[in-house]
Amino acid sequence: MDYDYIIVGAGSAGCVLANRLSASGRLSVLLIEAGPADSNPWIHIPLGYGKLFTDKRVNWAYESEPEPYLNDRQIFTPRGKVLGGSSSINGLVYVRGQPEDFNQWNVPGWSYNELLPWFIRSENQSRGADSFHGVDGPLSVSDLPDKHELCDAFIDAAVANGISRNDDFNGACQEGAGYFQATLRNGRRDSTATAYLHPVKHRKNLQVLVNAHVRKVILKERRARGVQVLHKGKSVDYSGGRVILAAGSINSPALLQHSGVGQGNLLKGYGIPVQFDSPEVGLGLQDHYYVRTTWRCNKPITINDALKNPLRQVATAARWLFTRTGPLTVSAGYAAAFIRTRAHLRRPDAQLYFINFSASKPGAGLDPFPGFTGSVSQLQVESRGSVTIRSSDPLQAPAIRYNFLSTEADCRVMVDALKMQRSIMNTSPISQYVEAELAPGGAVQDDSEWLDYCRAVGGTVYHPTSTCRMGIDEASVVDEQLKVRGVEDLYVIDASVMPSVISGNTNAAVIAIAEKGAALLLAK
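The chain above was modelled as a monomer; its predicted structure follows.
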C-alpha cells in the first residue's frame, strides 16, 4: 500500500503523531513499532515499571560503551520497545522543564511561549484548567492518589533548608519542593498508547504494525519513498508520501545512518552508500546523570514493608484492584525538590527525587527492610556523547557513548546537590525517620569522595536527547519544520531533535513536540 505518512516508532511521539495525522480521515497513516502490543499487565500498573526494567520483550535494554569518566563502566540503557514506547515502561513522572530551556534553543517557533499551547493541548489535568494547564487533551496528568508521611517529612525538611514549597512544578515556577504529578488515569498508567492510540485504533485510515523492525528508509534521488521492514521473518517494503522517524534518541539517528544519512566516512566504512553527508547525525547526545542515596527507615511504613511477604503483596494488589490506590500507584518519583546549588544562580540546576522505598540498584528488587531513597540529577547538562552504528546490520545495537561527568561543571553540580540532599535528610522532620544512611554512608565526606561515589554508582535517568539536533544553521540535522536537511519528505519528531536536554523529565516535552510537529505537517 501507498500511505500518506509512515511513522517509525509507536512511542511517546509516534502515538501522538498517529492520532493527530489520521484525525481528519483524509490521510492514510501507517504506524510501525518494533515491539509488541502493550498487553503486558505490568505496563498498566504504575509501580510495574520495576518489572519492566530489564524485560527484553518490551525493552531494548541497551548497554553503553565503557564510559571513560565512570571508571569504564557500561551504563544500562532501557528504552521502550512496545506500543507506547518508553511512555509504557517509564516512571510516569510529568515534568515540563524550565522556560529558559526552550528559549535557549534559539529556534524560531520553539520558544517556551510558542510551545506552551501544545503542552496545554495534550493535557487532561486533574486539577483543572488555568493559564498553564488544559483539560481537553488526551493525556491524563494527575496527582498521585495518596500522600505519604515520609514524603511530607522530606518536603518539610527541604523547606527548613531554605527551599520554597511548590505545589506545581509545571506552573509559573519550577523551583521548590513538593509532590510530583504523573501520567495516571484512575490509578493506571496513561501512556501515549492508552491516551492517544487506543481510542482511535478503529480509524480505517490508520494501520498499526507491531513486531516489525524498520531496517532503513528507502531514499530515491534524496527523497524518502518508504521504509524497508523486517516482519515475520520477511523483508517487506512499504511506500509512503512522507516518512517520520519517531524512534527516539537512540534509534532515530541509527536509522538515518543505516539509510545513508550521516557522517560520510562512518557510512562508507560500513559499505553504506552515502545519500547525504550530515556530520552531526548521532552527535550531541545529552542525558541527566543520576546518583542515588539510600536510607534505612526506623518505622515499617515504606513500600518495602508493603511488599515484603506474600500476604502483604496480596493485600496491596487487592487495594489497587478495588480502589486504584496504595503502593502500586507510586511513580518513579514521589516527592521532589528543584534547587539552586549556589545562591547566585537564576534558576534551579539540580533535581532531587524522593521515593518511599529502597533497592540496592534499579531493577534489582526491593531491600528486605524498611528503606527510602533520595536521588540527584543535574539539570543543565554540559557533557555530550554520541550514538553511532557499529556495522551495516540494522539489527545490531548502536554504540552509545554518554561521556557523563566529562566537564567540571557537571561534576560540581552533582557533588553540591548530593551534599544538599544529605543536609535535607539530616534535618527534621525527615531525620526522625532515619535509622542509618546506607549509601554512600558516613565514610564519604569531602568533595573528592563524593565525586568518586558519583563515578562509581551513577547512571542515566533515562532522558536521552539531542542526537538529531534541530536548528536554523546548515549543520543541524533537522530544520525548524523538523524536516531532515538534504532529504525531501523525511522528518524526525522525537526527543532527538532537542538542541539540548531540558531541565527535568523529558516525556512531557516529547509529547508537546509531537503535538506541534503534527500541526506543522498538517499545515503543509
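The mean pLDDT is 97.
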